[in-house]
Design brief:
- The complex is a heterotrimer of chains A (287), B (380) and C (164).
- Chain A is α/β, with parallel strands linked by helices and 287 residues long.
- Chain A contains seven helices and 16 strands.
- Chain C has a single domain, classed as Jelly Rolls.
- The chains are: A alpha/beta (287), B alpha+beta (380), C alpha+beta (164).
- The interface between A and B is large, with 51 and 53 residues.
- Strand 10 of chain A pairs antiparallel with strand 5 of chain C, so a sheet runs across the interface.
């Protein structure tokens, strides 16, 4: 980290940065009613290496471009996985693509989760709703590096039992002493045997040694705000809590000014920020 | 190359026409501020006759008018409505064309060498600021670079401020220290009318060497510096010191609501600002949908759409949009790019339809600052 | 069925996070109002509108707080986890439960006779204050959680604000 508490930037790339590369949809999978996971492969076969936490700008011919976090395994670079919710014109078009369709890709962009900081410590991943997608690369990494971590705890909150993203994988994680999954929903019917409540309620009971924990958080901004508070209140050092922030992105490379959050250009300085760098900003009205 | 040793030369007023001829001979289109529809705009000039000689602006909050000035100077006016920003960062440009195969065909940058005469020190500073924005991050804007390389900047040091000017308090003028190829000081006194010409780059020196003139005398150099000093002292507006810290502790200041009652969110200030760089991209497709184009164009943080995040805009209120603009410009710019984003040109004051004046807004915030700068220091 | 057979009730209470750290004097007094309880999965600790005469400190298993809604069946509005208390309606009149409390799995809990505790608190206001100080965070925490859920944080954008 540098002096102003931001994560180090990726090395300088001398490139106009504004031109998408053609990719092809290799597979498409419906996650939930309005949510699709696309697996993309580069048309020229050139793999696209990325780090957990980075995003790309996905371009649909004639429709536009949108920033989407990469939700695949960072150890696998020959396919690029994105999980997309249909919320706007471009994301709807992305969700409507079929196998064989083309997508333009710029990136990978932005910084990454500071995974190495968790080595030798407890790793707590807290996700809310669709925020599970940007942290899934951490889960892949953590499972591959299990012996380097004291423990892995995944805390996930979502709206209702039918809104659990990646449910088969998440529920299929073999929980042991070294790996636990805590899940809670806002409202459920009687069939749900899990927890009902907010994700922050699960945190105190799931933390093992707060002072020896690194936490990585992604979800709606208000959820992250309260999760940061809950983690810090339970004794996780503020500088060991990391959040993945979101604002409107048009260029993804620091030139368009759209994704500002106070002093930060989220695409350039983030999207991952240490909690102290954004804690106060998150409570500023309409920042 | 006799004059190579001389850093500055003096030449008669008619030397300006000679300078234009040299530039044209070198293949430059020559641009300058010229009068159109009662305002100064930046555009091509064919000769010195196109320059607004003798004219000055009367600029005030919400008004910029050209009137006859007191003397027959070429450059007693100050600024065209827009700076040379649009020559390095066009208001709209196509980035690429593509068919449905997404085999992207980049639209090449078409540049012609352009020499801009009369770039003011504040606008030179703005050009440096833009360079930092587009070239200091993880990516470098090669389109910006190609256009910047095609520009020759001939500065004119200001001898007379407009009432909206406050460059002296931003340390960006009224005298250019660097960032130009050539710099001119126009001296008009005791019946003499001459230019002191100084080179600021190898390219500028090469042109200077071909101008008729003599090594600038100590007196003329002194007169030039005195003119700049007088111009600085004549500025009536200034930016309060400590604006960066003041704004960073004023997110919740009640004054934003007061500004919002006047601000129309019209985006004029961002369109005339020489450093506002925010842009967007737009996709267009042919009627049958087979061909698509991507365009990049200027955007403004004053639009509702600017902060749109699935579900709604982050900055719904005019108050938060004005706060964003001025706080970015004067405070967060320091964090992002290592300097203020304001160069003190004052365009946003004159071209604001309701005369909102950022120096006055900062002063108003300071007047009701819950924690004065000194207290803030002590607290730390 | 065997837990607690070697521990005294005051000790069990003192081990529960809700009462941990209270003066022994107080846990001894509380112990006089407490007893062990076991609920098989799917059974109810209490139902809405019943008198709130026993509340529970959950030691193991989850308890679902439910509400029946015409047309939507039974909805779970909150889960009480081990280490927490089920029910706050015993503190204030009219001392009636507002929700059904169902054991999700096997639940082991300590039941506390509310009338007994209320009387002891009234008789000894300083003890009452200590007990209330332990319950206030329970109530405040639920309020915070409820406020957050009121925001419907994970709603698809199209649904945002629909409840308003």
């Amino acid at each position: 980290m540098n002096a102003i508490g931001q994560l180090d930037r990726s090395p300088l790339q001398i490139d106009s940065g504004m031109l998408p590369r053609p990719f092809v949809v290799r597979s498409r999978r419906e996650e939930m009613s309005d949510c699709v996971t696309l697996e993309l492969a580069a048309l020229d076969g050139e793999p696209l290496a990325f780090e957990a936490g980075q995003f790309t700008m996905l371009y649909v011919h004639g429709v536009g471009e949108v920033a989407i976090s990469i939700s695949g395994d960072p150890a696998v670079s020959d396919s690029l996985i994105h999980t997309i919710r249909a919320v706007g014109a471009v994301s709807q078009a992305l969700c409507g693509l079929s196998e064989g369709d083309r997508v333009g890709v710029r990136g990978p962009l932005g910084n990454s989760w500071p995974l190495e900081r968790a080595v030798g410590k407890h790793l707590m991943i807290v996700a809310g709703g669709l925020g599970l997608a940007p942290v899934r690369p951490i889960i892949y990494w953590a499972l591959a590096n299990r012996d380097r971590l004291k423990s892995i705890d995944i805390v996930y909150g979502t709206r209702a039992p039918d809104q659990i993203l990646f449910a088969p994988q998440l529920l299929g994680l073999s929980t042991t002493d070294g790996l636990r999954v805590g899940m809670t929903v806002d409202l459920a019917d009687q069939d749900w045997r899990g927890q009902v409540g907010v994700v922050t309620d699960l945190i105190p009971s799931m933390l093992r040694e707060p002072a020896e924990t690194v936490a990585m958080v992604c979800g709606p901004e208000i959820m992250m705000r309260f999760t940061g508070q809950a983690l810090a209140a339970a004794g996780v050092p503020a500088e060991e809590i990391f959040l993945s922030m979101e604002r409107n992105m048009k260029c993804g490379i620091g030139w368009c000014g759209h994704c500002q959050l106070g002093p930060h250009l989220i695409c350039r300085d983030g999207p991952v920020f240490p909690y102290p760098a954004v804690r106060d900003l998150m409570s500023v009205w309409e920042l | 190359m006799d004059q190579a040793a001389a850093k500055s030369i003096s030449m008669g007023a008619n030397g300006l026409e000679a300078l234009i001829s040299v530039l044209e001979a070198d293949g430059y289109d020559v641009w300058g501020a010229r009068e159109r529809d009662g305002a100064l705009v930046l555009g091509p000039i064919a000769s010195i006759d196109d320059l607004p000689r003798g004219r000055i602006e009367q600029a005030e909050g919400g008004s910029v008018r050209l009137v006859e000035g007191p003397r027959d100077a070429f450059f007693d006016h100050t600024l065209p409505m827009q700076s040379a920003k649009r020559l390095v960062y066009p208001a709209e440009e196509r980035l690429f064309v593509t068919g449905e195969d997404l085999l992207i065909e980049e639209t090449p940058v078409e540049t012609r060498p352009i020499a801009v005469i009369g770039v003011r020190p504040c606008d030179l500073a703005a050009m440096e600021t833009l360079t930092t924005v587009f070239e200091s991050g993880p990516f470098r804007d090669t389109r910006f670079r190609q256009r910047r390389e095609a520009l020759l900047l001939i500065a004119v040091n200001c001898m007379r401020p407009a009432s909206t000017c406050f460059c002296a308090s931003m340390n960006t003028g009224p005298r250019a220290e660097a960032g130009f190829d050539l710099a001119l000081d126009e001296l008009l006194e005791d019946g003499r009318h001459l230019f002191v010409v100084s080179a600021g780059s190898a390219r500028g020196q090469e042109i200077l060497d071909r101008l008729d003139g003599e090594a600038a005398s100590k007196e003329d150099l002194q007169a030039a510096r005195d003119g700049s000093r007088a111009c600085a002292e004549a500025q009536t507006r200034r930016m309060a010191e400590g604006a960066e810290q003041l704004l960073k502790r004023s997110y919740d200041h009640p004054h934003w609501a007061e500004v919002a009652e006047r601000c129309l969110s019209c985006t004029n200030c961002t369109m005339v600002c020489p450093t506002c760089f925010c842009g967007t991209v737009e996709d267009r497709s042919s009627l049958d949908g087979s061909e698509a184009e991507r365009w990049r164009r200027w955007d403004s943080c004053f639009t509702l759409d600017f902060s749109y995040l699935h579900g709604g805009s982050v900055r719904k209120e005019t108050a938060s949009r004005y706060r964003q603009w001025i706080t970015h410009k004067l405070a967060h710019w320091h964090d992002q790019f290592g300097s203020s984003g304001c160069v003190g040109c004052g365009r946003c004051i004159g071209w604001c339809p309701v005369g909102i004046d950022l120096t006055a807004e900062v002063a108003a915030l300071a007047a009701n600052d819950s924690s004065s700068g000194q207290q803030g220091e002590e607290r730390r | 069925m065997t837990d607690g057979n070697i521990k005294s009730m005051p000790d069990i209470l003192a081990e529960h996070p809700l009462f941990a750290g209270l003066d022994k004097e107080i846990t001894d007094l509380l112990g006089g109002c407490a007893g062990n309880a076991h609920f098989a999965a799917g059974t109810y600790l209490f139902k809405a509108e019943e008198p709130a005469d026993i509340f529970y400190l959950v030691r193991s298993g989850d308890v679902a707080l439910e509400l029946s809604m015409p047309g939507r069946g039974k909805l779970v509005v909150d889960t009480v986890r081990p280490g927490h208390a089920v029910g706050a309606s015993w503190i204030l009149p009219p001392y009636r439960w507002r929700f059904d409390a169902r054991a999700v799995g096997d639940v082991r809990a300590t039941g506390i006779d509310a009338a007994c505790l209320r009387k002891k608190c009234d008789d000894d206001p300083s003890m009452g204050y200590q007990v209330l100080k332990r319950f206030l965070p329970v109530v405040a925490g639920r309020l915070q959680s409820t406020r957050l859920r009121l925001l419907d944080l994970y709603a698809p954008p199209a649904d945002v604000g629909r409840a308003l």
